[in-house]
Specification:
Elements: H1 3-6, E1 13-16, H2 19-25, E2 63-73, E3 78-88, E4 95-101, H3 127-133, E5 145-151, E6 158-162, E7 165-174, E8 179-189, H4 193-196, E9 201-205, E10 210-215, E11 221-222, E12 225-226, E13 230-231, E14 247-256, E15 260-263, E16 266-267, H5 270-273, H6 276-285, E17 292-295, H7 297-305, E18 311-321, E19 326-329, E20 333-341, E21 346-354, H8 359-380, E22 388-393, E23 398-400, E24 403-406, H9 418-433, H10 450-467, H11 482-485, H12 505-524, H13 527-541, H14 548-557, H15 564-571, E25 579-590, E26 600-604, H16 616-623, H17 630-633, H18 640-645, H19 650-653, E27 656-660, H20 669-675, E28 679-687, E29 695-701, E30 706-711, E31 722-729, E32 733-738, E33 753-755, E34 764-767
Parallel strand pairs: 2-14, 21-22, 22-24, 25-34
Antiparallel strand pairs: 1-31, 2-3, 3-8, 4-7, 4-11, 5-8, 6-7, 9-10, 10-19, 12-13, 14-18, 15-19, 16-18, 17-20, 20-21, 23-24, 25-28, 26-27, 28-31, 29-30, 29-32, 32-33
Helix pairs in contact: 8-9, 8-10, 9-10, 10-12, 13-14
């Protein structure tokens, strides 16, 4: 394309120096390896996991089916359970023992994982904190009490409990393709999760004397045995969450008769546990487009006053889930509505359970947020496959298949702030979204928190945007991660860190990966490429166990983008983004440049080039009689220099040869007028932060018009510290703004602006020649020669 065409009306031509010139101008500044491939870091592909990021033809995973009965003793606040587990060994390995998780042992003073955190003496404290900090002198009575562990026939099995893990030693090897049936009876005292912390337990409402139970990680659960880890039996410390296998569940829960129960999966006996009015409302809700109260506020308030001594059993079933959780309380209001997932025409019951303390918020927003979430996530990942999605208000946030626990209570008079409302909607979206990550795309949370929290937080951000374009999302937009990225290096860890080792857990596991994915989508890859790759990952690994390499490789495989530089910097490193405009050089054309005249260059034929030193290979090859050199063997291969060296071309060598360079015609009046207003700008950028990113510029001209330009991060490939770009415009620039929309998480925007008013320097000139007819614009070549149109002025 000729320069003239680029300068008509409002135009721009950008030129970037070649690597040879760039490195020459910035000696010693390269190379930080930010663009090297991750091949030596990622695990080697195999028959289980391919180099494309897809499951391999030999991929396998084990399975566990559960048949559980539970008895909730509200007076003693004790849970008694019995389970029959059918474990399928689909691996190619023989197993002589299996591992199960006893997560409730984390609440015990003697059975917990033993992971401690450092502590310092506070300036002030209270009696409760003092009591918690006392050294445990005896068992506090919490944790799992194993009553019986047997095979299907009732024969006791040998087992060993190691803190929060239990190993069952098998009487005979469990071979590939075989299944094992065993039974466990257990009980545990249910902790007060408000005082003791943790995800499961009870909350007591002193004003009406009732409890709200969230029964989570409440039964002995099978550990994952996988191709990439073997047994995932890392201890449960309360932070790193869960690695679990898929299976089918049948669960019966015996609770006080006035309790309302919600759980993973579908209830199979509503007719036996609901009143006729409640059952009729449930049937109506099954076809409703707006939430309908199944258990009303008045019914919940009435139930709070009478503690029934009668009991009922609720029966639930769930297929292809990795876990089962439930909730029980007489305080619950319960509403529901039907939502249809367009992608698979799945008709889902979206429901919410909440006490009167949350009524004014949850009645308005919860179930609608549930419906919105599963529909939106289905657009960006896979169609929601389950029949139920539920939100429970329990003053916390935690997720399980088809059910999650959230916060969002009003003031006592029923009022609430915008902050509380937005926080409640955000947590419902987030926890319901966990149905996809990791309940379906089943990553190892015990090892990689970001694979569920980060991916889910990113998709939550997309969902919040579709809920309300003005929604004040705290995680996802690039500018929201800047304060974290500014922290000193000794306060940061890479995203690729084990869950237990992260100090800034929220920013590291939630915000930074979510922000990175948003930058990929909006700034680096573009929405079309990103969305296709993201859906491909979800589809490939739905109901399977993905690892980080599977995600990284799939995102590249499905998009055609080499993103190793991004994973290396954003996920494996702690460098921030801080790209600065170092200087801007301004130049205008010298329209009176004399034409370039033709020149004659004379030369003689040079002697053949030979190495000044004969290396060991040459010497040995010359001595090797089996080698016949081609010029000695085939006379037709003897070139001019071979003959010259032997005196055969001496006459030709004495001749002198002449070549002429092409002249350049002078600019005529029309050309001068065309380029009279042309100004060249060389912008020098410095990578001060270390993390490479695209260079995004907004030019504002003196006439008030604007122009945007973006260079991909690949501009830094051959010099990761400094780079320059040259532009030519037919109007004057007033200012240049780097990253005007704050897309790259740049931690220092004070060095992102250049203005002509602040320059104070005279503009220099560059020579401008008329291109010879029929030729294209002169470009720099492999020899590093500079485009003759390049500006060469002083700093302005």
């Amino acid at each position: 394309m000729k320069l003239q065409a680029l300068l008509l009306s409002f135009s721009v031509f950008a030129y970037t120096g070649f690597a040879a010139q760039n490195i020459q101008n910035n000696p010693g500044s390269n190379h930080g390896n930010r663009f090297e491939q991750l091949g030596t870091i990622l695990p080697t592909p195999n028959i289980y996991r391919t180099a494309s990021g897809a499951p391999g033809h030999g991929y396998w995973q084990n399975r566990a089916d559960y048949d559980i009965t539970a008895y909730l003793d509200e007076d003693k606040r004790n849970l008694k359970g019995s389970e029959t587990v059918t474990y399928y060994n689909n691996s190619p390995d023989d197993l002589d023992y299996i591992w199960l998780q006893l997560d409730e042992n984390e609440q015990s003073t003697v059975k917990n994982a033993g992971f401690q955190f450092p502590s310092t003496l506070p300036a002030s404290t209270n009696d409760q904190q003092l009591a918690v900090s006392e050294l445990p002198e005896k068992d506090n009575g919490y944790g799992v009490n194993l009553e019986k562990v047997t095979d299907a026939a009732g024969t006791p099995l040998k087992y060993t409990v190691n803190k929060t893990m239990m190993r069952i030693d098998l009487p005979k090897v469990l071979k590939k393709g075989e299944k094992l049936v065993f039974k466990i009876d257990w009980n545990y005292n249910i902790p007060n999760r408000i005082k003791m912390g943790g995800r499961g337990g009870y909350e007591n409402f002193a004003e009406d004397g009732n409890d709200l139970y969230t029964m989570t990680q409440w039964y002995p659960r099978m550990c994952v045995y996988s191709d990439f880890h073997g047994w995932q039996n890392h201890q449960f410390t309360g932070r790193g969450e869960f690695a679990l296998v898929f299976g089918d569940f049948k669960v019966s829960m015996n609770v006080p008769a006035d309790h309302i129960v919600g759980g993973t999966g579908e209830c199979k006996n509503y007719e036996q546990v609901l009143t006729s009015d409640q059952m009729a409302r449930y049937r109506k809700a099954e076809g409703a487009a707006e939430p309908i109260e199944i258990v009303t506020l008045d019914e919940a308030k009435k139930a709070e006053k009478n503690h029934s001594k009668q009991r009922k059993t609720w029966v639930f079933a769930a297929n292809d889930v990795r876990d089962f959780a439930w909730t029980s309380s007489r305080k619950f209001v319960w509403d529901g509505m039907r939502v249809t997932i367009p992608e698979n025409n799945n008709k889902v019951m979206a429901m919410s359970f909440y006490p009167k303390e949350a009524y004014n918020l949850y009645r308005k927003y919860s179930t609608k947020a549930v419906a919105h979430t599963i529909k939106t996530y289905s657009e960006f990942t896979i169609p929601y496959p389950y029949p139920v999605a539920q939100s429970v208000e329990a003053a916390n946030g935690m997720e399980y298949p088809m059910i999650c626990f959230n916060f969002g209570r009003t003031e006592k008079d029923g009022t609430y702030s915008e902050g509380t409302k937005n926080g409640m909607i955000g947590v419902v979206i987030h926890e319901v979204g966990h149905n996809f990550f990791p309940m379906i795309i089943n990553s190892d949370e015990r090892q990689w928190s970001w694979m569920d929290e980060g991916l889910n937080t990113f998709t939550e951000y997309l969902t919040e945007e579709k809920w309300d374009n003005k929604f004040p999302s705290k995680r996802g937009p690039a500018w929201t991660i800047v304060d974290y990225m500014k922290l000193p290096k000794d306060q940061l860890e890479p995203i690729m860190s084990n869950s237990e080792n992260i100090v800034q857990f929220g920013p590291n596991a939630y915000s930074k990966p979510a922000t990175g994915l948003n930058i990929l989508r909006e700034t680096i890859m573009g929405r079309e490429l990103f969305d296709k790759a993201y859906k491909t990952y979800a589809k490939r690994w739905a109901f399977k166990h993905p690892e980080p390499a599977d995600f990284f490789r799939t995102m590249e495989d499905a998009s055609g983008e080499d993103l190793d530089w991004f994973w290396r910097g954003w996920f494996y490193g702690t460098d921030p983004v801080d790209i600065a405009i170092d200087k801007v050089t301004v130049a205008v054309p010298d329209l009176n440049t004399p034409p370039r005249e033709a020149k004659e260059i004379k030369y003689k034929v040079e002697k053949p080039i030979q190495n000044s030193f004969e290396d060991i290979s040459k010497i040995r090859n010359k001595e090797d009689k089996s080698i016949a050199f081609s010029v000695d063997k085939d006379k037709e291969l003897q070139d001019f220099y071979y003959r010259y060296d032997r005196g055969q071309e001496k006459v030709d060598a004495e001749k002198e040869y002449t070549i002429k360079t092409d002249p350049s015609p002078a600019l005529d009046a029309k050309d001068k007028e065309k380029f009279r207003n042309t100004t060249g700008y060389q912008i020098d950028f410095v990578n001060k932060g270390g993390l490479v990113m695209p260079i995004i510029l907004e030019f504002t001209f003196e006439d008030g018009s604007k122009l945007y330009d973006k260079s991909s991060a690949q501009i830094w490939r051959q010099n990761e510290q400094k780079v320059s770009k040259t532009y030519y415009f037919d109007k004057k620039i007033k200012s240049i703004q780097l990253d005007p929309m704050r897309e790259t998480a740049d931690i220092d925007t004070s060095n992102n602006l250049w203005t002509s008013a602040g320059s104070g320097s005279e503009t220099s000139k560059f020579q401008l020649f008329k291109q010879k007819q029929g030729g294209g614009p002169v470009r720099g070549g492999a020899n590093g020669k500079v485009n003759p149109m390049q500006a060469a002025g002083k700093k302005s």
